[in-house]
Amino acid sequence: MFDIPFLRPNLVKKERFISNFEKIEETRIYSNYGPLNNLFEERVIAQMFDGIGSAVTVHNATIGLILAIAQSKRPQGKYAVMPSFTFAATPLAAEWCGLEPYFLDIEPENWQMNREQLEQTVKLLGDEIAVIVPYATFGTAIDLSVYNKLQEQGIPVVIDAAASFGTITPEEATHFGKGFGGAVVFSFHATKSFGIGEGGLVYSLDQDLIKRIRQAGNFGFSSSRESVTQGLNSKISEYTAAIALATLDHFKTVRENRRTIYEYYLQELLQADLLERGWSIQKTQGSVVHQFIPLLSPDSHTNQEVVKLLASNSIEARTYFSPACHQQKQFQSYTRSTLRVTEHIAKHIVSLPLWEELDEIIVRRIVNVLGSLGKETTG
């Protein structure tokens, strides 16, 4: 056990959703896109996306990726082009759709998929590309202009935006993904900023795409309950929808709290001069509801050294995403571009604790330990 754990999920309390549980007992509708689920989808579109587009809930973001890729991919395509610096769920989803991941590098400051490599890869692979799956790294907004152009060229795009629910874009000051014609997949896992236990959401401006995903997520049933397309069961229960509705009511407070904690970290990192001593942070775009604090260690020290040092001070840290996907056994055989930036970041990425009860004193303790790196004495 650590004095300071990496994450301490803090889901909405039962007092906030018990009235919705009572509604479930009244209706005796427990699943199958019930009234609470429908209300949640409607409120998300109205409150988060200004009434623009459509959305469907899914049991988790991995299922959301599988369904979005399956309903978007070009049937004759072979590859799902994606960054290697992403969670394993992304290439796994491509595999479940019968595709081969094709890994690209990331950009050194914002850690999004390298757009120059992407342009070259589109020219190289042509019609062999089934779908492109960029990752909105650690919740940041990413530049969608290049992906809008790809959509216009007939190349489907599914954005893995697992941690980006609540992210506001820097230019338009609207929710990330709003108005995007491809699919945008969000995670509502307990560890995410919008955590409901298990769950997710697929958003798109394309109402027909969302209808197809909804149908595929209900066994591919037609209105006569006949399977007419490949499907599975991705539906959330009404109990999950009840928690999601209560979480949506409470989300403004969560956003403000997490933003405050992120500012604590920035303040302490600056005061300790760590950013002048080789440490670096991601250059995010927009206002992000941070899930945790990603940080790169100095070139002279690996992330494993940092994690070990923090653990010796009873502080738990992780290394998302190290190893990167192309370094993992399941994906090592797949084609990839040069991945110089990915491999450097995978060697130095450290994920620091963020949970809603953190205060300045705890953050200062964490940063002070980071500042002692390389100064440890041996007995």
UniProtKB/TrEMBL annotation:
Catalytic center residues: K192
InterPro entries: DegT/StrS_aminotransferase, PyrdxlP-dep_Trfase, PyrdxlP-dep_Trfase_major
Residues carrying N6-(pyridoxal phosphate)lysine: K192
Gene Ontology MF annotations: pyridoxal phosphate binding; transaminase activity
Name of protein: Aminotransferase DegT
Species annotation: Paenibacillus polymyxa (strain SC2) (Bacillus polymyxa)
PANTHER family linked: PROTEIN RV3402C, TRANSAMINASE
GO biological process terms, semicolon-separated: polysaccharide biosynthetic process
Family: Belongs to the DegT/DnrJ/EryC1 family.
SUPFAM superfamilies documented for this protein: PLP-dependent transferases
UniProt keyword list: Aminotransferase, Pyridoxal phosphate, Transferase
